[in-house]
Amino acid sequence: MTVDAQPIAKLSDLSDLGFAVVEHSELPAELLDLVDQVRGLVHAVARTQADTAVLAGAARTVAALTEQLGADPRPLGTMVHRTWPDGHTEYGTLSNIVAGPANPLAPPLELVRDGEEVRAEVTLNGLYEGPPGLVHGGWVAALLDQALGSASSMTGRPSLTANLDVNYRKPTPIGAELTVAARITGTERRKVFVSAEIRHHGVVTAEGTAVMVQVAVSRS
Ligand SMILES: CCCCC/C=C\C/C=C\C/C=C\C/C=C\CCCC(=O)SCCNC(=O)CCNC(=O)[C@H](O)C(C)(C)COP(=O)(O)OP(=O)(O)OC[C@H]1O[C@@H](n2cnc3c(N)ncnc32)[C@H](O)[C@@H]1OP(=O)(O)O
């Protein structure tokens, strides 16, 4: 492992760079509850066998809610800034598809630092199904990518995935607790090398490595 001087500045205040930023602690509990309820709704829709009258009524109700909730949207690219109990802070995208706290399509994934690693426990419901009873391979890669990106952000500098390599070792089950963990394995100039795996009952179902490249942040 080599560690060279980094030309990319550490992330400071993204609002100074023109990003819309919301504090995680200021997200209303009602929003987080709504996100969770909509997650349940989407799962129910994907599996419903209700009769046509119920389906038609539900569609009208949802259309009315969509109009109400869509009236004053936050700008695309809104960031959420979070301060963890150990004092470290991080930015993420509020509607990130894999871990955004305001995105009902994201599984309830909270990657927390644990020493030199980031780690999360997550159970994916049937919305993430690929083969019967198994997590879709694209979502396995997405979970790994998110964890790898989160590990890379421990440098304090923003980075993007340049290369992602995934090995699917065992089927990853739906409806079962999974552990996702990632860490930095090396840095070289702007490159951050990271590795991650998903475990079920301690058995690795998938593992990934990535080259993340640190980038200068600007809002254009
Ligand atoms: C730009 C806006 C950024 C905004 C970020 C703002 C805030 C961030 C805050 C919070 C985010 C926190 C967490 C996010 C968590 C998870 C997100 C999941 C991750 C993603 O979802 S992310 C989206 C998918 N991702 C992309 O959308 C990237 C598209 N792509 C590019 O934007 C460029 O391609 C880039 C930037 C990657 C490189 O471009 P570049 O011009 O900056 O760098 P350049 O080419 O000079 O390479 C420099 C060194 O990297 C080596 N290198 C380059 N490419 C390589 C490859 N493929 N494999 C191996 N090594 C590679 C070279 O060989 C050289 O190495 P060497 O130093 O040895 O010469």
From TrEMBL:
One of the Pfam families matching this protein, by short name: 4HBT
Q: Which organism is it from?
A: Nocardiopsis ansamitocini
Q: List the membrane topology term(s).
A: Peripheral membrane protein
All copies of domain Thioesterase, residue ranges = 133-200
Keywords for the protein's UniProt record, in alphabetical order: Apoptosis, Cell membrane, Cell projection, Cytoplasm, Fatty acid metabolism, Hydrolase, Lipid metabolism, Membrane, Transit peptide
Protein's recorded name: Acyl-coenzyme A thioesterase THEM4
What general EC class does the enzyme of this chain belong to? hydrolase
List the record's Gene Ontology CC terms alphabetically.
Answer: cytoplasm; membrane
Q: Which family does it belong to?
A: Belongs to the THEM4/THEM5 thioesterase family.
InterPro entries, sorted: HotDog_dom_sf, THEM4/THEM5_acyl-CoA_thioest, Thioestr_dom
Q: Name one GO biological process term.
A: fatty acid metabolic process
GO MF entries: hydrolase activity
Q: Which reaction does it catalyse?
A: decanoyl-CoA + H2O = decanoate + CoA + H(+); octanoyl-CoA + H2O = octanoate + CoA + H(+); tetradecanoyl-CoA + H2O = tetradecanoate + CoA + H(+); hexadecanoyl-CoA + H2O = hexadecanoate + CoA + H(+)
What EC designation does it have?
3.1.2.2
Q: Where in the cell is it found?
A: Cell projection, Ruffle membrane; Cytoplasm; Membrane
